[in-house]
Structure formats: structure tokens, C-alpha cells
Design a protein that fits this description.
Radius of gyration: 31 Å
InterPro entries: Kinase-like_dom_sf (IPR011009), Prot_kinase_dom (IPR000719), Protein_kinase_ATP_BS (IPR017441), Ser/Thr_kinase_AS (IPR008271), SRPK (IPR051334)
Distance between the termini: 80 Å
CATH superfamily of one domain: Transferase(Phosphotransferase) domain 1
GO molecular function, one term: ATP binding
Catalytic activity: L-seryl-[protein] + ATP = O-phospho-L-seryl-[protein] + ADP + H(+); L-threonyl-[protein] + ATP = O-phospho-L-threonyl-[protein] + ADP + H(+)
EC number: 2.7.11.1
Strand content: 15-25%
Keywords: ATP-binding, Kinase, Nucleotide-binding, Serine/threonine-protein kinase, Transferase
CATH topology of one domain: Transferase(Phosphotransferase), domain 1
Helix content: 25-40%
């Protein structure tokens, strides 16, 4: 067979616009091994041969370990097809027969899901007799290039992030259908087996007999850098696929995409495919393979090399993760006495994040979502990986969701931003006409029908609520419909009321059931849509969604003011009462300068009637959170880090010493950056444009975050998890990435936990990365052990005597007096310098962080003392900026 030419792709398409519209790639110049054309080997095929009296061979388009693939055309219909012709050895014939059985099972399984549309279509099968024996030929509908062709031999080499999400979505739908409805494991999920669907004209360009054929080059009408490119993917090659209930092989998957349980011969199932999805997603995002295969005659060496790469990126591998392997003799060779795999590479918890964050084309939100998506598919323990069905619910593949939530925490539900503001709440009286199927609510002459799937459809009467107005509540409840619906016509005209028919929807969230367990339950949340008006208030933008409520930016049309409404469901939490008390204390104590360190409470109300379980907190809206700003600039200027740190320490000092309160959730999402009046107008204008469907120009704040002399003012907010200082505090508080060791170990804690979180926050705003990143998942014992392991890797050894005896038994000490290894002092500074800090700044920041990142809370520096640390020496005083 002739070797194809090496084509210059840039010279092939001279028209620059054509280059943008077409995906151009070289045809493969590799040939199958010639020594495999023997008994039991490949079928000798020549261009122009007619097989089974129907299929005329046009060209070879690929080959594999046990087959060759040819482009052909049917004699009667002149339809383009792909022929897969297997080797004639008995083992390969058996594989082909199983592949046909699996493909027929897929074709015959009827489903309403989209997953059934993402597979290659088997059209025909037949036997071919040649000099080397009998060969099975499978006929498929002709498709375009494989994903491997695109990322290795095309002119574009990369896919737009939206197309990567679409690919993941379609492949998860395919695997969900394959796993759940067909009972099949693919066993070889990789870019070579994912094909792109192209149009008939593109297929004609692949035909050597076509006038549009360009030898050595394939071109397709696809622009894979365009997020709006209409593209569909098909999963192919079921040559080593297995029925889930009849797995008769142990060695599956291509080495690069092989799951750890397959390497260990510990049994495999559907989760092996999910591991491969994670590997492929990583490769598409970064442009490089996640793991490099080492070929060796020593299987043990190859195993150790590959699994060590997994451990370096994903963390320690434990014997208990592989239930079917622990009883085997070979387990002792691979795992130490503590059940930890003997890896020659240590776990580098930052390495994985650094590789993803290094991809310039990813937004801050995409970075964190795809990181979490990949990690949730690549748990060492197969039982802990997301299934295809659950992975479809992940935010990363829900790319059409336009909600603007803070992405920097890898959790199921991001922490709610600390914004609140005054609103009006509604009352409605249900009628007596209620059936099991539907309920009706009367509002004047209208009736609104509620389906069983929705909690309430309410056409609401506006009435300002007050927690102290019980008499008004009773009076309204006993009044007639006409009295309740009486509205001042003049006010109605002036305020242009628009009643919103749906104020509560059903969403899932976590609520505590006991000290150490969270369970997924349903709760009623007050929710509106962009642009809705309730009374004089126009809802512009959802600022956050938390476990117990939602937060909205609202425009008050009466006084033309802007604020934020935090709406809390008190039926599942009592945190609003504590938060209100703390905010009132802050407002009543201290100087004006100190009060300016906190987001101000303006008012609060309790709903009445059907909304009696909701609290409406009203706080000033001053601007974005530190986390949102970092989404644009990655990290703050070092002088700004000093200033922000000093302001937050002043706030914490006042909380601890004067208010006697522990904030218990210090993190970038709860620290707001103050904008000036002009920037506030830009934020509001952008929100209004989104409501009206208009395009907004890019946001440019008057604050120059790159200018060290620019003044950045911040305020601390969100006291939903705050605790009054007292003895024996053990309630689980703090977001995982900022959680102090004593909270993690369920030890008694005090104000020092805020100082630990402060150290984590300072590191994050200086580098753009979390110091102790937490993966998405339920906070179980294994999760806590992994998190404590991150701390040990960074800070070194810890003595058990620091904590209570009952606590050290709980997590990871296991009768040991000391755990962890000694970490040199300069390690943290080296990491800081890696993120772009100068050596002087890295050493200075390392010294400052160690004041807060102490295992023993008793020797952590107090907030008041840390304020005067020379780290905060700067050319200006942050308190001189306040208006």
C-alpha cells in the first residue's frame, strides 16, 4: 500500500475565511503491519474490489489491532458506507460475533432518551472468504473523522469549551443508555472511538473518485472553535465491549484511559467507562493525555509506573477502595501494611489544578466546574464515581444554564452571597375547592390551577410584612376577598405593579439530620424571575443560591435605591434570627469607621400567610465579592492583599472582642468589594440589558486592580453560620476549604477558627488558588481524612496532644502520638513564588500565613495583634478611604 504525502495544511486552504469555516486534517499515513497478512490475519483488499456483490471499495480509512476499515459505496443506491473487516483468527471471529450481538442489542432497545441516538448504526453483516481464512465484515453508515483525528492531525487541534461540554453531554447520554437500558459496558472509551457526524457533501470530499477530492487532505464544514457549531458525536467500536452480567475478560481499555481496578485485576464494571470519560475530558481541555503509558516487559513495573501517576494527580490509593482485590496475594506486593499503594511519586494536591488553570481559553467558572467534573468521575474507588445518569446533572455539562453563581467552591450548592434587602411579602387565602389532583386559589375573578408537580402557583396580593403585625395578619385572614384585593388605584398607576404568579419553587438542598450526616431533601424556596416586579420592587438579578434561601439584586422604584434581598426559609433553619441579632449589635456598637467594615442591615421582615416561613433580610448592596473579582483578575496585587487583610482583621477583631461572636465562614465569597456610584450604575445597566435581551459592553470598573495605589475597600458579610462565643462549641461550621483542623476533628473551638480561615483567604487572593481545595462530594469520614491529608502535606507533622483524646481517635491518628512528615519551612514560599510572587513577597507572605496556619489554636495570633504586624505596612491607611 502506498504511503500518503505529508501535506502542508496552511498551503492547502489559502482563503483565510475558508480556514475558519472548515476543519482540515491530514489523512493518516500509517499502515497496518504487513506481517499480519497471513493465516488468521487481515483480509487482502484492493481498491475497486466488490464485496458481497454490493459494496465497491473506494479507499482505506483506518485499521486496528484486529480489523481494517474501508470506505465503500453501494452499487444500487450509491450510498457511502464504512466496512469493518476483521482478522480471520478464531479469537477475532468470536470478538466480532460479540460486537454484532451488542450492536443489535443497541439497535433493538427502544428508548425515549437521547442516548440511543449517539451510536454508530450497524446496517449489514456478511462473511468474506480470502486466502487467509474467513472474515466477518460489518457495514456502518459513513461518518466523519474521529475525535483523535481532530486533536492530533487537524488545523484547529482544539474544540471550543462549549463543544467539549456538548461532547461530554452526548457521551454521558450514550453511556447512560448503554449502562442502564442495555446492560453493556463499552470497555474502550477513547477519542479514537468517538466519531463526528458530517454532511453528505463532506463525505463526498472523502471519495477519491469525487472532483472535490484533495489527495492526502480531508476537509469538513465544521468550525470547532465556534461555540454555535452544530455538531453531533457517535460512539463506535464495540470490539471488546462486555455485557454487564457476563464479563468474560479481565484486560480491557487502552492503557492511557484504563481504570485502576482494571490495572489491579480487581474486577470491573460500568464505573470503568466513567474513568475513561474523565481522562478524555482532561485531554480535550488541556491538549495532553492525563497519563503516559510506560511499556515494559515487567508487568509490575508498568503497573507501579502508571498507578503512581494517578496518585500524584488524584491522591493516595487505598486497598479498601478495591473490594475484589484485598483478598489476593498480590495485594501485599502493591500495598503497604497500612493499606496504601506503594507509589514512587508523592501526591501533589496542587498539580491537577495547576494543569487545568493553565488553560488560557477557560473562564474562571469553567475552570472550577470542569475540574470538579473530572475529579468526580476519577475516584480511585469505583463505587464513589458518578454514574452516567448522575453526571448528566453536573453543572459542567449543563452549559445552557446562565445563572451567575460563584464558581470558586466545588460544592453541590455554592454558598449564598451575603446580600439582603427589604421587600414586600404576599398573602393569599386558599379556597375550599381542593382535590387530590389540583388546588385552586382565587384572586378576584381569576383562578390559578396548581399541578401536582409544583408547590404553589400564586397570584399575589402585595402587602408589606412585619414580624410584629400579628393583629393585621388575623384581620386580613378573616376579611373577604374584595377587602383583601382592594388596592389604591392611584398608587397602582404610579408604581406600575406587576404581580408575579409564582413565588415558590421546589429545589433540592442539604439539611442536617444529625451531627455527622447530611441528607438530600426538598424545601420550598421563594423565587422570582429576572425582570419581575413585586410591588414597587423590580427583581434584576439573582446574586446567589444557598441551602436555605436565595439572594436577589432589587431596584426599589419608589426611592430609586438598589439593595439585595436575602430570603431565608425558616422552616429548615433558624440561622436568620442569629444573623439579625449579630447585625443589629454591629449597627449599635462601635464607631462609624468600624461599622463600615460590615455589610449594613437595613431592615428585616417576616412573611405572613402562606409565606410565614420566610424571613426577608435587607442589606446594602455594595458590589461584587472577592471571588467574583478573582474570576476576572485571577489574583490581587500584593499591596491590595495587605490592605484587604488588614481590613478583614479589623472586622474580626471587633467581632471577637466587642460583639463576642465567631463569624465561622470567612471566605472570598463572603467579602464584598465596594464600588463607586458610576460602577454601580454599570452593574445595574448590565442587569437591565440582560432582562431586555440586549448585549452589554464588557464591564470595566473604575477600580484599577493592577494599580498598587488604587484604594480597594471591602466589607464582611453573611453571618448565617456565626456562633456566639461560649464554651463547648462543636457545631459543624465553615466551608470545607477554609475549615480549621479543630472543626474538622470535631474538637471544641473558639474565635481562632476565623484566623485559620483568614490565612486561607489571604493565600487565595494572593495566588488565585485555594490552599486546601476540596472536591465536590458528601462530607463523610473519607472526605475529611483526605482534607486533613492536604493540610498535613502543606504544614507538616502534628501532635495528637493538641486535641482532645476523643477527637484524635475520630479521624486519623489511630493511637499515633504524631502523624505527618516534617515539611521544610521554605516549601510554602517556593509554592508562592511559583504563582508569580517575587522571592521577597513569597518569604514575607509565608511568615505572615504561619501566624494563622497553626494546628494549635492557642498559639494562633489574635486578630487584634495581627493588625499591627509589619506585613500590613503600606503607603496608605485603608481606613482613610471611607466616605
Amino acid at each position: 500500500m502506498n504511503e500518503e504525502k505529508n501535506i502542508d495544511l496552511e498551503a492547502t486552504l489559502t482563503d483565510s475565511s475558508l480556514k475558519q469555516q472548515y476543519e482540515v486534517l491530514r489523512e493518516s499515513s500509517s499502515n497496518e503491519p504487513s506481517d499480519q497478512y497471513k493465516k488468521g490475519g487481515y483480509l487482502t483488499v484492493n481498491i475497486g474490489d466488490v464485496l458481497s456483490s454490493r459494496y465497491t471499495i473506494l479507499k482505506k480509512i483506518g485499521w486496528g489491532g484486529y480489523s481494517t476499515v474501508w470506505m465503500a459505496k453501494t452499487k444500487n443506491t450509491e450510498e457511502y458506507v464504512a466496512l469493518k473487516i476483521t482478522k480471520s483468527a478464531k479469537a477475532h471471529i468470536e470478538c466480532s460475533e460479540r460486537e454484532i450481538e451488542i450492536l443489535e442489542k443497541i439497535n433493538m432497545t427502544h428508548s425515549n432518551s437521547n442516548g440511543s441516538n449517539h451510536f454508530v448504526k450497524l446496517l449489514d453483516t456478511f462473511l468474506v472468504y480470502g486466502l487467509n481464512g474467513s472474515h466477518i465484515a460489518m457495514v456502518f453508515r459513513m461518518l466523519g473523522p474521529s475525535l483523535f483525528d481532530i486533536i492530533s492531525r487537524s488545523n484547529q487541534r482544539t474544540l471550543h469549551i462549549t463543544l467539549i461540554k456538548r461532547l461530554c453531554l452526548q457521551m454521558l447520554e450514550a453511556l447512560g443508555f448503554l449502562h442502564d437500558e442495555c446492560g453493556i459496558i463499552h470497555c474502550d472509551f477513547k477519542p479514537e472511538n468517538i466519531l463526528v457526524e458530517v454532511n453528505e457533501r463532506d463525505i463526498q470530499r472523502m471519495d477519491p473518485q469525487s472532483t472535490n477530492y484533495n489527495e492526502g487532505v480531508l476537509s469538513f464544514a465544521l468550525n470547532l472553535t465556534d461555540p454555535n457549531c452544530s455538531i453531533n458525536f457517535k460512539l463506535a467500536d464495540f470490539g471488546i465491549s462486555q455485557f454487564a452480567n457476563n464479563r468474560n475478560v479481565q484486560s480491557i481499555q487502552t492503557c492511557t484511559y484504563r481504570a485502576p481496578e482494571v490495572f489491579l485485576n480487581a474486577g470491573f464494571g460500568r464505573p470503568a467507562d466513567m474513568w475513561s470519560v474523565g481522562c478524555v475530558t482532561y485531554q480535550l481541555i488541556t491538549g495532553s493525555k492525563m497519563f503516559v503509558c510506560t511499556r515494559s516487559t515487567d508487568p509490575k513495573f508498568e503497573l507501579t509506573q502508571h498507578l503512581s501517576q494517578m496518585i500524584e494527580l488524584l491522591g493516595p490509593m487505598r486497598l479498601e477502595d478495591f473490594h475484589n482485590f484485598s483478598h489476593k496475594k498480590s495485594a501485599k506486593e502493591c500495598f503497604d501494611s497500612n493499606g496504601i499503594f506503594k507509589s514512587y511519586l508523592p501526591y501533589n494536591h496542587q498539580l491537577f489544578y495547576e494543569k487545568i488553570v493553565g488553560v488560557e481559553r477557560l473562564s474562571h467558572q469553567d475552570t472550577y466546574q470542569c475540574t470538579d467534573f473530572i475529579l468526580s468521575l476519577m475516584k480511585h474507588n469505583p463505587r464513589k464515581r458518578l454514574t452516567a445518569k448522575k453526571a448528566l446533572l453536573h453543572q459542567f455539562v449543563q452549559y445552557t444554564d446562565e445563572r451567575s453563581e460563584s464558581p470558586s467552591e466545588l460544592q453541590a450548592f455554592p454558598s449564598m452571597a451575603s446580600f439582603s434587602m427589604e421587600t414586600s411579602c404576599s398573602y393569599i387565602q386558599p379556597t375550599n375547592k381542593m382535590s387530590k389532583e389540583h388546588q385552586y386559589y382565587e384572586t378576584g375573578s381569576n383562578k390559578i390551577k396548581e399541578s401536582p408537580d409544583v408547590i404553589r402557583h400564586l397570584d399575589c396580593l402585595q402587602k408589606t410584612c412585619s414580624t410584629s403585625s400579628q393583629k393585621d395578619t388575623n384581620r386580613i385572614a378573616n376579611s373577604t376577598d374584595s377587602e383583601r384585593l382592594r388596592v389604591n388605584e392611584k398608587e397602582e398607576t404610579e408604581k406600575e405593579h406587576k404581580y408575579h404568579p409564582r413565588l415558590m419553587v421546589e429545589i433540592k438542598h442539604f439539611v442536617k439530620t444529625d451531627a455527622n450526616k447530611k441528607t438530600l431533601e426538598y424545601a420550598k424556596h421563594f423565587q422570582v424571575s429576572k425582570g419581575d416586579r413585586i410591588g414597587p420592587r423590580k427583581f434584576l438579578k439573582e446574586l446567589g443560591l444557598g441551602c436555605y434561601g436565595t439572594v436577589w439584586l432589587v431596584h426599589n422604584l419608589v426611592d430609586n435605591s438598589y439593595s439585595a434581598t436575602k430570603i431565608i426559609n425558616t422552616s429548615v433553619t433558624d440561622t436568620s434570627e442569629t444573623e439579625i441579632k449579630i447585625l443589629n449589635k454591629i449597627r449599635e456598637s462601635g464607631t462609624e469607621q468600624v461599622k463600615n467594615l460590615f455589610v449594613e442591615l437595613l431592615s428585616h421582615n417576616r412573611g405572613i400567610g402562606q409565606l410565614a416561613q420566610f424571613d426577608f433580610l435587607t442589606l446594602e448592596f455594595i458590589g461584587p465579592t472577592l471571588s467574583e473579582v478573582m474570576g476576572e483578575i485571577k489574583a490581587f496585587h500584593f499591596d491590595h492583599v495587605r490592605s484587604i487583610s488588614k481590613q478583614l482583621l479589623c472586622a474580626l477583631s471587633h467581632l471577637h472582642e466587642t460583639i463576642r461572636v465567631i463569624h465561622a465562614d470567612v471566605k472570598p465569597q463572603n467579602v464584598m468589594v465596594k464600588l463607586d456610584a458610576n460602577d454601580m450604575k454599570k452593574v445595574v445597566q448590565k442587569a437591565n440589558n440582560e432582562i431586555e435581551g440586549k448585549e452589554s459592553p464588557p464591564m470595566f470598573y473604575n477600580i484599577d486592580f493592577a494599580d498598587s495605589k488604587c484604594r480597594i475597600l471591602v466589607k464582611l458579610g453573611d453571618f448565617g453560620h456565626s456562633q456566639i462565643i461560649k464554651v463547648n462549641l462543636k457545631a459543624r461550621v465553615q466551608t470545607c476549604s477554609y475549615r480549621a483542623p479543630e472543626v474538622l476533628l470535631q474538637n471544641n473551638y473558639g474565635p481562632a477558627i476565623d484566623l485559620w480561615s483568614h490565612g486561607c483567604l489571604v493565600y487565595e487572593i494572593a495566588t488565585g488558588f485555594q490552599l486546601f481545595p476540596c472536591s465536590f462530594g458528601e462530607e463523610n469520614l473519607d472526605h475529611q481524612q483526605q482534607h486533613f491529608g492536604l493540610i498535613l502535606k502543606t504544614l507538616g507533622r502534628v501532635e495528637a496532644r493538641i486535641y482532645e483524646e476523643s477527637c484524635v481517635k475520630y479521624l486519623c491518628f489511630r493511637r499515633k502520638k504524631v502523624i505527618g512528615e516534617t515539611v521544610p519551612d521554605e516549601c510554602l514560599a517556593q509554592r508562592l513564588s511559583y504563582f508569580g510572587l517575587s522571592i521577597e513577597h513569597a518569604v514575607e507572605l509565608q511568615r505572615f500565613l504561619k501566624l494563622f496556619l497553626q494546628y494549635n489554636p492557642k498559639i494562633r495570633v489574635e486578630a487584634g495583634k495581627a493588625i499591627s504586624d509589619h506585613f500590613h505596612t503600606a503607603p496608605h491607611d485603608p481606613f482613610s478611604f471611607w466616605n
